[in-house]
Amino acid sequence: MCTAPLTAVGRSVPRREGADKVTGRARYTDDIAVPGAWYGRTIRSTIARGAIRSLTLDPAFDWSRVVVVSADDIPGENVVQLIRDDQPVLAPNGGEIRHKEEPILLLAAPDRATLEDAASHIHIEYELATPVSDIGSATEVFSTVDIAKGDVASAQREADLVVEREFRVGLQEQLYIEPQGAIAFPEADGTIRVIGSLQCPYYVHRALKRALKLSDQQAVVVQAETGGGFGGKEEYPSIVAVHAALLARKAGRPVRLIYDRHEDLAATTKRHPGVIRHRTGVKEDGTLVFQDIEIVLDGGAYCTLTPVVLSRAAIHAAGAYSCPNVRIRARAVATNTPPNGAFRGFGAPQSLFAAELMVEHVAERLGVSSVDLRRKWMLRLGDTTATGQVLSESVGSELVLDAALKNAPAVRPSDRPTVRRGRGLSLVFHGSGFTGSGEKKLQGTIAFEALADGTFRILTASTEIGQGTKTIFCQLAADALGVGMDKVDLAPQDTSLVPDSGPTVASRTAMIVGRLVQDAATEVKERLKREKAPLRVEKSYIQPDSIHWDETTYRGDAYPVYAWACTIADVDVDMTTGEVRVSDLITAVDCGKALHPVMAEGQIEGGCLQAVGWATIEEIKMQDGGYQNDRLATYLIPTALDAPRIRTILVENPYSRGPFGAKGIGELPMDGPAPAIIAAIHDATGVWLDEIPATPEKVLAACASR
Amino acid sequence: MHEVTFLCPKDLQDAVRLYRTTPGCRPLAGGTDLMVMLHARTLRPQPRAVLDIWSLAELKGVRRHSGMLEIGAAESYTGIIRSREAHRHVPALVAAARTIGAAQIQNRGTLGGNLANASPAGDTLPILLAYDAVVVTDRRSIPIDQFFTGYRKTALQPDELITAVRFPQGRDVVFRKVGTRAAQAISKVMMAVSRKPARIAIGSVAEVPLRARGAEAALERGDVDGAIAAVADDIRPIDDVRSTADYRRTVTQNVLRELLSVG
User: Fold this and answer.
1) Interval A211-256: pLDDT, tens
2) By Cβ atoms counted within 10 A, which residue in A98, A624, B30, B178 is the most buried?
3) Would you call A642 and B182 a contact, using CB atoms and an 8 Å cutoff?
4) Contact A576 B255 (CB under 8 A)
C-alpha cells in the first residue's frame, strides 16, 4: 500500500465532469448535432403473445422517402448478444411474439413528420396466443440456483420454533434522468461507429459485431455523457445501438434513435418482481438452527441477465447471518411481459427484503428485540456464509449496527392525532464485484500511460454514469504517482482507444478497476525511476489464489469481500389515508475506505431514496401484458418533498485488496431501507405487510382487517 | 400529416368570433392539458385549429365584481397564488393551486382550462363546487353545480368560451388532497368542505367532480356521523391506475371525518 500522504484520496475534490454538467456544456446523446442524420423509430408489437401473421407496408405511402429495416436486413445473427441466444434483434415475419412492445420493424426518415406518417402506414396482423401473465401461472424456467449448507432436513428436529412467511416484491423502473438513445454512423470502410447513453461499451461492441457481422475493428462504441443508468443501461443499450446501426447501414447515413420517456418506460427492462418464502427454525434461546428459503423471480419474456440476477439474489438470501443449516432453492421463470433486467442491487434487494423481515417475525414470536437477535445471529470475522465462504477480513456487521444505533435519537410521537410514528431497522451486506468466478473469467484490463509532457493518462472502458468513476480514477492515480490531480487525465470511453476493463456494474468499478488503476500507476512510478516517458503499462485482474468458487455446487467464495450497512427508518403513517411518509433514514455503511466522502454519501443517499420509492410508492400495474404506468404522470417516484432526511455515517473498515482499502458501495444502499420501512410501519400501526410497495391501499386494508 | 391552424385573436371579441366561425377549433390557454393530449393523440377528432387565448388581457386578473371575487379564465395558478384578493377571499383556492403540478405547470395552468377539460381529477373543481362559484362565459353565467354533465362533458355549447369564474365572499372552505406523493401527483381523492352552507365536494370519486348531496343534507342537520355514513353512497368510485374503488370509498369517509373534526 502507498505510504506517502494522500492528497487526493479521501478528499471531496471537485468532480471531473461536474462543471460541464452544471453549466450545460456536457453533451448527452440527443444533444449531439449530426448534420444529415436521419431520425429512427422502432415499430413494436401490440400483443403479449402470438405470432406475426403478416407485415404490410401500405402502398398509399411512398416508401422511397424512408428506410425500413426488418429481420431480413440483419447481416449477422438475429440475436441480442447476452447470456442465452433467445432474444431476436427484430421479430421476423411469421415469427413468435413473446411480449408487448417487442421490436418488429425499424424506420428512419429525414424528419420526424415523415417518420410518423410512415409509421401510420405499417399494418401488422397477429395470430394471438394466451399469454402467461405472472409468476403463478409460469411454467418455463430460465435458470435455477441451489445452495445447501449443513443439513436442513435433520436440523428441523432441533428447532423449538419454526416460523414461515411469504413475501412479494414488485417491478421497479430505473428512471435514469436521460432516456435510452444512440446515434450510429456508417463509415466508408464498413466500420460502424455508435455513440450512445450506456454503461458497458464492450457489451454493445459484442452485440454489434454479432448482429452486424463486424470485426473487432469495424465495430466502434463510444459512450456519450450519460444521464444515469442504475443497471438500466447495462444490457438494453445493446438493442438500441444495434437498431440504430442497422438503420444507418441501410440508410447509408447517420441515424439517431432516441427514446422518449413513454417508449423508455413501456419497453425497457425493470427490476425483477419476485416471491420469496422463508422457513426459519430457532431454539428457545433464539439460536438460529436452520433457514429454508425458496425464491421465484419473474424474468419476463427473454432471459437477458436473469440467471446472474437470480444468482446474486440466492447468495444474499440468508441475509447477513450465520446459520449452520441453510437451503436456498431459487428459480427464475418466463412470463409474457417485457424482459426484466439489471437494476442496482441485482436481485439482492429482493431476497434481503425477505431475509430482514424474517428476523423481525422470529423476534416477535420469541418475544425478544430484533436488534438483540441480529447481534446474536450476525456474521462476524471468521464466520461462514451460506455458500461456505469464511469471512476473513473487513466484516463490518457490528460496526455499522453500533454506529447506526448510536446516532439514532429517541422516537418522539407525532403531534398530529391521526398520524402514528414508528421505527424499523435492517442489517444487510452486499457482495462487491462480480459473483463467483466472474472477475477471473472477465480479466478486466486497463492501460496507463506516462506521456512525454509529464502528464498521465488512464485508459479504461469503465463509464461515468453519475457515480464518480472519472474523479475517483484520477484521485487513485494521482496519489499512487504522488502527483497533483491536474497531471492525470482519462481517455474517452471509446472501444477503439481503450481496453476492456469490464462493464460498469456490480459495485466493481472503484474496487476492482480502481485497484488496477492504482497498481498500474504505482508500476509506472517505479519504472519512471529508470526509464523515460512516454511509456505504457497494461494491467489485468488476476484472481488471488485464496479465492475459490465452484460454480456447479455454489460452494466457496461468492464475492471477494462484502460491504455492510445498518439502516434505521422512521415513518409517519397517516391513519386517515394510509399514506406512509419516511421522515428520517439513518444509514451506517462500511465502505472500506471513502475515496471521495461527498460522492460516497451521494451514492448512499440516492440509493436509499430509490429504495424508499420501491418500498412505498413505485408501483406498476399490468394490463394485457403491458405496464399501465408507462408515463411520468403515472409512474411516480419520490419528489424532494417525499424524501426523508438521510443521515449517512461512513464507517471505514479497510479491505486489503481494495484501492486504499475501498469496497464497492454502489448497490448496497438499495438493500436496507425497504425492510426497515416495513418494520417501521409495523412499529407504528401493529400490522405486518408482506409485500412492497407499501401503498396506502395496502396499508389501510391491512389496518382494517386487523 | 395532421396540420393545425394557429389562431391569434387580438382581443376577446375577436376570439369569440373566431371560435364561433372556425370548425374543429380548440381554445388554448396554458396548454397544460391540450399539449399533452395533442402529443399523446388522445383527442378525437384531432383539432383542425387552435385558438390562442393565453394573452388576452380580458381573461387575466383577479378583481372584485359586484360583491363577488372574479378571476379571469386565463389567469394562471401562479397569478392566483400571488393575488392578495384571492388570499383574502378564497384562501382554499390559493392553497389548492399550490398543490397542482410543479411551478412550471402553475405558471401555465388556468381555472378556465381546468373547467373546460372537466377531468374528474381536476384539483380546483371541488374547491369551486364548495364555494358555489359561477362560471362566466361569452354569453351567460352557469352555476358550478350545473356545469359538469358527464365524464369530461360540460354544459358549454360547442362555440361557448369561458371568460371568468366568480366566487361569493365570506365562506370558509377546507380541503384535503390525497395523492400518491407529496407533490406533483394527480389526486386519488380530493375533497373540499364548507360547513355553512353545507357543501361537500369531491374529485376523483366519480365520472365528474361532484357534490355529495346526501352527506350535505346530513351535515345541514348537524348530523356529522350521518354525513360520514351517507358520503359513501354519494360517490361512484372505480379502480384505475391510481387507486381502487374500495380505497377511495374508505378514504372519502376518513377525510370527511377529519375535515369535519377540524372545521
Assistant:
1) 999 999 999 999 999 999 999 999 999 999 999 999 999 999 999 9
2) A98
3) yes
4) yes
C-alpha grid cell, residue B26: 380548440
Return the number of other C-beta atoms located less than 10 Å from residue A546's C-beta. 9
Predicted confidence band at A3 (pLDDT cuts at 50, 70, 90)?
low
Distances (CA, A) of A625 to A53, A595, B109: 20, 44, 35
Answer yes or no: do B1 and A113 touch at CB < 8 A. Answer: yes
Query: Which of A116, A578, A634 comes nearest B241 by C-beta?
Result: A634
- Cβ proximity of A435 and A429 under 8 Å: no
Q: A636 to chain B: which residues are within 8 Å by CB?
A: 180-181, 184-185
Residue of A nearest to B177 (CA): A577
Give the Å distances, CA to CA, from B152 to A322, B114, B138, B149: 60, 11, 21, 8
Candidates 1.10.760.10, 3.40.50.1970, 3.10.129.10, 3.30.465.10; CATH matching B58-168: 3.30.465.10
Least Cα distance to A485 among A155, A2, A15 occurs for A15
Name the minimum distance, in Å, from the CA of A120 to any CA of chain B: 10
Q: Which three cell numbers stand for residue A138?
A: 409460469
Exposure of A319 in the CB half-sphere (CA atoms within 13 A)? 29
Of A577, A636, A704, which has the smallest distance from its Cβ to B181's Cβ?
Answer: A636
Classify the phi-psi angles of A260: left when phi > 0, otherwise alpha if psi is within -120 to 50, otherwise beta: beta
CATH 2.40.170.20 fits B5-52, yes or no: no
* Contact status of B258 with chain A (Cβ, < 8 Å): yes
Residue A692: which of A606, A613, A584, A633 has the closest Cα?
A613
**Which of A636, A642, A700 lies closest to B250 in CB terms?**
A700
Where does the pLDDT of residue A1 fall: very low under 50, low under 70, confident under 90, or very high at 90 and above? very low
Please name which of A671, A652, A673 lies closest in space to residue A663, comparing C-alpha atoms. A652
What is the residue type of A463?
T
Q: Are A700 and B182 within 8 A, CB to CB?
A: no
Closest residue, chain A, to B189 (C-alpha): A577
Q: Which amino acid is at A337?
A: T
**Nearest-angstrom CA–CA distance, A653 and A258:** 43
- The partner residue sitting opposite B180, judged by closest CB among A617, A628, A704, is A617
B33 → chain A, closest CA residue: A633
| pTM metric for this prediction | 0.97
Mean pLDDT of A446-475: 98
What does DSSP assign to residue B197?
T
- In this prediction, residues B120-146 reach a mean pLDDT of 98
In this structure, whether the domain defined by B173-262 belongs to CATH 3.10.20.280 is answered with: no
Quick: pLDDT tens for B190-222. 999 999 999 999 999 999 999 999 999 999 999
Q: To probe the interface with A, which of B247, B248, B257, B259 has the most A CB atoms within 10 Å?
A: B247
Q: How far is CA A144 from CA A395, A579, B195, B222, in A?
A: 29, 37, 62, 64
Domain spans in chain B, listed from the N-terminal domain onward: 5-52, 58-168, 173-262
User: A121 touching B, CB under 8 A?
Assistant: no
Q: Does A263 touch chain B (CB under 8 A)?
A: no
pLDDT at A623 over 70: yes
How far is the alpha carbon of A616 from chain B, nearest alpha carbon, in Å? 9
* Nearest chain A alpha carbon to B36: A633
Decide if A462 contacts A473 (C-beta within 8 A): yes
How far, in Å, CA of A666 to CA of A600, rounded? 9
For chain A, which domains are there? 18-26+438-540 (3.30.365.10), 32-131+175-267 (3.30.365.10), 274-436+552-704 (3.30.365.10)
For residue A57, the distance in angstroms to the closest alpha carbon of chain B comes to 17
Category of A578 on φ-ψ map: left (φ > 0), alpha (ψ -120 to 50) or beta = left
